[in-house]
Design goal:
The radius of gyration is 24 Å and the shape is elongated. The strands form two sheets. It has a three-stranded parallel sheet. The chain is mainly alpha-helical and 364 residues long. It is built from 16 helices and five strands. It starts with a strand and ends with a helix. α1 links the parallel β1 and β2. Helix content is 54%, strand content 7%. The protein folds into two domains: 233 residues, Rossmann fold; 106 residues, Tyrosyl-Transfer RNA Synthetase, CATH 1.10.240.10. It binds tryptophan. Tryptophan (TRP) binds next to β1 and α8. This is Tryptophan--tRNA ligase. One of its GO terms (cellular component) is cytosol. Keywords: Aminoacyl-tRNA synthetase, ATP-binding, Ligase, Nucleotide-binding, Protein biosynthesis. Its EC number is 6.1.1.2. It is an enzyme of class 6 (ligase).
């Protein structure tokens, strides 16, 4: 039997989305929404998860709900094909989380490598909010509530999917086959998994101030690209340069197509030729950066313009989220009913519980 695809992904609304999100996931989602064998596709604004390490800063999360929605729609994600929703508007997710927590040990949560590195980055030490440590469990609720089987994510999310699979296996083993086992789908090009910041640091992140946002104006984009970190040993144009670990080339690997070369830099047929010249020496950083700028501008211009148009019509964006959240809740409540029935905590559904207890009491 051919499996029907149900896709679910999401992002935390802690800031506007950047080009790392674009190559890591958004671009893929736009393709996926047009595939024919998809039964349903959900995209979630994960505000509940964002609150796990922003409890004291709720307005940051609130303010970014519509920002992220705008980024989605501007990229071409289509509300006719995608069910968008806001995580906290689906209370069923909290209830599922509560039941799944009993299937996961604290030690297992502490071993999750992504959570571990986030704890380090945030300097939590002994002050880890328990909700934060637990967010992989809540993420398992996000996924299983919709019976999603395909989860398009970046590499950093693999530990979450793995934990979800463990929860599914455990739940189904104890209570019966109710939950669907999900599979992660990674970006095709591995450079897209973790785009470095413009400063060359391992990750593009808001707190490091090294992002290129989808909504950046042309002038900001230019300033950022032209100031990007490159190979520090490539001092003169004639010097041989290093492309590995050079963020300008990493970005080109993620964004540049042969058509871009034809249009903006016909000296080279493709990136391999340009990289070869840079490695040999004789190709200056400014020329490479100008090319990257042209590539990024041609990609981001239509997104930026659509975003501006959409921002004039927030009623529409709000409505997409509101309608989508109501629909999503309907789907999640069906799964929750099955979960409760499987766990036999559906006491007031019909007369099973009372009948069974009457038999038990009369046998005493
Ligand atoms: N953890 C994801 C991120 O930080 C967001 C997320 C929450 C998510 N729930 C999810 C992604 C479920 C995929 C599936 O980007």
């Amino acid at each position: 039997m051919k499996m029907e695809k149900i896709i679910l992904t999401g992002d935390r609304p802690t800031g506007r989305l950047h080009v790392g999100h674009y190559v890591g996931s958004l671009r893929r989602r736009v393709e996926l929404q047009n595939e024919l064998d998809i039964k349903k596709m959900y995209v979630m604004i994960a505000d509940t998860q964002a609150l796990t390490d922003n409890a004291k800063n709720p307005s940051k999360i609130r303010d970014n709900v519509l920002e992220v929605a705008l980024d989605y729609l501007a990229c071409g994600l289509d509300p006719k094909k995608i069910n968008f929703f806001v995580q906290s508007m689906i209370p069923e997710l909290c209830e599922l989380t509560m039941y799944y927590m009993n299937l996961v040990t604290v030690a297992r949560l502490q071993r999750n490598p992504t959570v571990k590195s986030e704890i380090q980055m945030r300097d939590f030490a002994a002050t880890i909010p328990s909700g934060f440590l637990n967010y992989p469990v809540s993420q398992a609720a996000d996924i299983t509530a919709f019976k999603a089987n395909i989860i398009p994510v970046g590499e950093d999310q693999l530990p979450m999917i793995e934990q979800c699979q463990e929860i599914v296996a455990k739940f189904n083993n104890i209570y019966g086959e109710v939950l669907v086992n999900p599979r992660a789908v990674l970006p095709e090009k591995s450079v897209c998994n973790r785009l470095p910041g413009i400063d060359g640091k391992a990750k593009m992140s808001k707190s490091l101030g090294n992002c290129i946002y989808l909504s950046d104006e042309p002038e900001e984009l230019k300033t950022k690209v032209m100031s990007m970190f490159t190979d520090p040993k490539h001092l003169r144009v004639s010097d041989p340069g290093e492309v590995e670990g050079n963020p300008v080339f990493t970005y080109l690997r993620a964004f540049a197509t042969d058509e871009h070369f034809l249009e903006f830099c016909p000296d080279y047929k493709n990136l391999a030729e340009m990289e070869e010249h840079y490695t040999r020496g004789g190709l200056g950083d400014v020329k490479v950066k100008r090319f990257l700028l042209a590539v990024l501008e041609s990609t981001l211009k239509p997104i930026r313009e659509r975003r501006k148009e959409l921002a004039k019509n927030l009623d529409y964006v709000y409505d997409v989220l509101k309608t989508g959240s109501l629909q999503a809740e309907e789907a999640a409540s069906k799964t929750l009913a099955e979960v409760r029935a499987a766990m036999k905590i559906n006491y007031f559904d019909g007369s099973d519980f009372l009948d069974e207890q009457k038999v038990r009491f009369s046998a005493k």
